[in-house]
Amino acid sequence: MKRIKIADVLENPKIGETITVKGWVKANRANRFIQINDGSTINNIQAVVEFENFDEALLKRVTTASAIGVTGKLVESQGSGQAVEIAVESIEVIGDANPDEVQKTVMQPKRHSMEFLREQAHLRFRTNTFGAVFRIRHSVAFAIHKYFNDRRFYYLHTPILTGSDAEGAGEMFQVSTLDHKNPPLNDDGSIDYSQDFFGKQVNLTVSGQLEAELGALALGQVYTFGPTFRAENSNTSRHLAEFWMIEPEVAFNDLKDNMDLTEDFLKYITNYILTNCADDLAFLNEREAKEQLSKPQNERNELTLIERMEFVRDNEFKRLTYTEAIEVLKRSKPYKKKKFKFEVEWGVDLHSEHERYLVEKEFKCPVILTDYPAEIKSFYMRQNDDGKTVAAMDVLFPGIGEIVGGSQREERMDILKKKCADFNIPEEEIWWYLDTRRFGSVPHAGFGLGFERMVMFVTGMSNIRDVIPFPRTPQNAEF
Ligand code: 4AD
Ligand code: MG
């Protein structure tokens, strides 16, 4: 008999129909009430066994985490807690799970720490929390592709192996096939990369933006969505060494258009999850609310997860310049009481304590900061008329901090070449990028959304390691 998914059964139950479901046992009460989950939904289906009719040895194997298939009639449930259940006619154990071993895993029905869960690469997917997180992660990705496809953006695959350092951050993972112990050397003792696989130094991409600009200045509007690698040695709850980034790039857009696009995009994704992931979201909302109870009153969130999402969807983001933000910070209580760890002065990069103050205390809504000092931003950002600032924008979210970074790009060749010189970027390395300013250069703008930071926002997970299936962080590349 053809297997059907539990999500489909529960969404559209056909009472009286004989069905087959296959999945993993969540619980087996009294060898009679078996909760089965197949991953298609957070909800289990209950299978009821008249155990007198079945082989006892077989039923003993139906333990938590084992895989089974059941066939039976879908009936209205006698018990509370579910509307329908399966009156089992036949049952098959597809994969056993040793109960003694299961006891030592996260399958044991009690609360587990996130650290313990992270160690169990496989079984954490089976928990309600991670099932919900990864179904939502999928839906966020789907919503992103739908948003752009519906608006005639083209999905452009930019390279993962690249010779360019788009962000000038210098935090790159090098890729080489040279013999580490005995690399070929130049006369001056430096490594001779002309003998390496690509004949030059190559790294894993830190951003697909520069390549996306080439696409945008022909296809009009494109976006990238791919893995991104940064060797920054920051062990925080918001940084990964391997993360995913979405980078739209639009010809003829200026900074204002760029802000409008970002805001609309983030609201669209948030609304998509609110509308399409109700069951998983309700579970995560409840989970967070329970977790909050164990915190002191003044550290609790003012809004629930769902309320925060509705707030972002329904309210305008606050827009202000970096210069205005510095003034706000200088007028703030923590500044006057010397509570900020890092300096607040025009020209310094803002730290997360400053960003959080602006979002969570001062404005209490998402904030778009614009027009940063040129020195603290990348070479490709468009120089403003004041000569000191560039047309950059960062979007700051409550509980997350920076979720988006973007800018209008410098489309004027003479200024761009000067910036390359200022930033020590040799023109002969970046000729292919400069070409875009040679043949019909136009104003254009784009931004990068950190995919995992967005997933954090719509799941309420507080550590970025818990929204990516296999996290890579300093000292950690297990599995
Ligand atoms: O601000 P960033 O560095 O911007 C760029 O890379 C531009 N090229 C984007 C563009 O204009 N096309 O990174 C963009 C976003 C950040 O706002 C953050 O959300 C995320 O990427 N991000 C990280 N997420 C997880 N772990 C890390 N180590 C991250 N670094 C950046
Ligand atoms: Mg940034």
Q: What's the short story on this structure?
A:
The chain has helices at residues 6-11, 56-60, 99-102, 114-119, 128-150, 209-219, 255-276, 278-293, 305-314, 322-331, 333-336, 352-363, 413-422, 431-434, 451-459, and strands spanning 18-29, 33-37, 45-48, 67-76, 84-95, 154-155, 161-162, 174-175, 202-204, 221-229, 242-251, 318-321, 367-373, 389-397, 401-408, 444-450. The protein is α+β, with helices and mostly antiparallel strands and 479 residues long. The strands form three sheets. The protein has an eight-stranded mixed β-sheet, with helices on both faces.
What does this structure look like?
With 479 residues, this protein is of the alpha+beta class. It has 2 domains: 6-102, OB fold (Dihydrolipoamide Acetyltransferase, E2P) (Beta Barrel), CATH 2.40.50; 128-171 and 206-466, Bira Bifunctional Protein, Domain 2 (BirA Bifunctional Protein, domain 2, 2-Layer Sandwich), CATH 3.30.930.10. It is 32% helix and 22% strand. The strands form 3 sheets. It has an 8-stranded mixed β-sheet, with helices on both faces. Strands 1-2-3-5-4 form a 5-stranded mixed β-barrel. The protein has a 3-stranded antiparallel β-sheet with strand order 7-9-8, with no helix packed on it. The longest helix has 23 residues, at 128-150. It is globular. 35% of the residues are buried. Bound molecules: 4-amino-1,4-dioxobutan-2-aminium adenosine-5'-monophosphate and magnesium ion. Magnesium ion (MG) is lined by residues 394, 402, 405.
